[in-house]
């Protein structure tokens, strides 16, 4: 997979050199490039923002640097006549005004060939940037959740980690992906390792029983109990009543 990130803070993404994603980059499974938006400014101060039309607090990111930076990674998208593409690169603008990111979206993104992340700061990017590229390629606004970050960088780090680990070959043992929180719509069961007794706390005896059927049943019960307790909104019962879904 190819991933391009456009940001005014390239150093945020230094951490993508380490751990599993760093390895995936070294082995060529992920071709990830970080681009400094300020390299696409043409004034002495390398200005990327300006005051909002209509007034209001904060600054808005200017369209010209974004246009130049995106054209450089999306040569296909400079042709408007072709209309909005059904394939080709997918452009994602992290934004608290976007569709909420979740494991299902991570799976969809993991099947893409080329993702482009445009990290906005301040009060956001001039809307015409989104409109211009939406007429030429696939564009999505994606939010991490219902809270406000200072910019898209941390959100994009989270999305890339969630997506990257689903790319075949990135996680050594693919079975470890299956039993995790959210993969079957439930939170994951609690895990234990040696020693069997620690500070007067015992590992649940069923896990020492060697009875694989009983262990699987216990783990499923734990998943249900945990999900009911902390995330009842994930259960089918909750969604049956909640036909006006919060997704979308
Ligand atoms: Cl994707 N960006 C920003 N700036 N804030 C957020 C977010 C994204 N998701 C949740 N809060």
TrEMBL record:
GO annotation terms (biological process): tRNA N1-guanine methylation
Keywords: Cytoplasm, Methyltransferase, S-adenosyl-L-methionine, Transferase, tRNA processing
Entry-linked SUPFAM superfamilies: alpha/beta knot
EC class name: transferase
Xref: InterPro entries: Alpha/beta_knot_MTases (IPR029028), tRNA_m1G_MeTrfase_C_sf (IPR023148), tRNA_m1G_MeTrfase_TrmD (IPR002649), tRNA_m1G_MTases_N (IPR029026), tRNA_MeTrfase_TRMD/TRM10 (IPR016009)
Cellular localization per UniProt: Cytoplasm
Ranges in coiled-coil conformation: none
Reaction(s) catalysed (UniProt annotation): guanosine(37) in tRNA + S-adenosyl-L-methionine = N(1)-methylguanosine(37) in tRNA + S-adenosyl-L-homocysteine + H(+)
Keyword S-adenosyl-L-methionine: yes
Location of the tRNA methyltransferase TRMD/TRM10-type domain: 1-236
Major site of localization recorded for this protein: cytoplasm
Cellular component aspect of the GO annotation: cytosol
Pfam family, one: tRNA_m1G_MT
Positions with a binding annotation for S-adenosyl-L-methionine: 120, 144-149
EC number(s) per entry: 2.1.1.228
Entries under CDD domains matching the protein: TrmD-like (cd18080)
GO MF terms held by the record: tRNA (guanine(37)-N1)-methyltransferase activity
Annotated spans, Disordered: 227-248
NCBIfam families on file: PRK00026.1, trmD
Chain's role: Specifically methylates guanosine-37 in various tRNAs.
PANTHER family named in the record: TRNA (GUANINE-N(1)-)-METHYLTRANSFERASE
Assembly information from the UniProt record: Homodimer.
Family of the protein in this entry: Belongs to the RNA methyltransferase TrmD family.
Full protein name: tRNA (guanine-N(1)-)-methyltransferase
Organism: Cryobacterium tepidiphilum
Name of encoding gene: trmD
């Amino acid at each position: 997979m190819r991933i391009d990130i456009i940001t005014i803070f390239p150093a945020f993404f230094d951490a993508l050199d380490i751990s599993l994603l760093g390895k995936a980059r070294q082995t060529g499974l992920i071709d990830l490039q970080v681009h400094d938006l300020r390299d696409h400014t043409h004034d002495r101060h390398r200005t990327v923002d300006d005051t909002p039309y209509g007034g209001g607090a904060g600054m808005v990111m200017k369209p010209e640097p974004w246009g130049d930076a995106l054209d450089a990674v999306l040569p296909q998208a400079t042709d408007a006549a072709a209309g909005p593409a059904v394939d080709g690169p997918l452009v994602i603008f992290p934004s608290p005004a976007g569709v909420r990111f979740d494991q299902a979206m991570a799976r969809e993104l993991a099947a893409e060939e080329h993702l482009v992340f445009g990290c906005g700061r301040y009060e956001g990017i001039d809307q015409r940037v989104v409109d211009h590229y939406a007429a030429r390629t696939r564009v999505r606004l994606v939010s991490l959740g219902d809270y406000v970050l200072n910019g898209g960088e941390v959100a994009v780090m989270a999305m890339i980690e969630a997506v990257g680990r689903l790319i075949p070959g990135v996680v050594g043992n693919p079975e470890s992906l299956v039993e995790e929180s959210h993969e079957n719509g439930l939170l994951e069961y609690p895990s234990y390792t040696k020693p069997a007794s620690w500070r007067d706390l015992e590992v649940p005896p069923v896990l020492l029983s060697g009875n694989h059927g009983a262990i699987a049943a216990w783990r499923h019960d734990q998943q249900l109990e945990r999900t009911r307790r902390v995330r009842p909104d994930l259960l089918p019962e909750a969604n049956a009543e909640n036909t006006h879904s919060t997704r979308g």
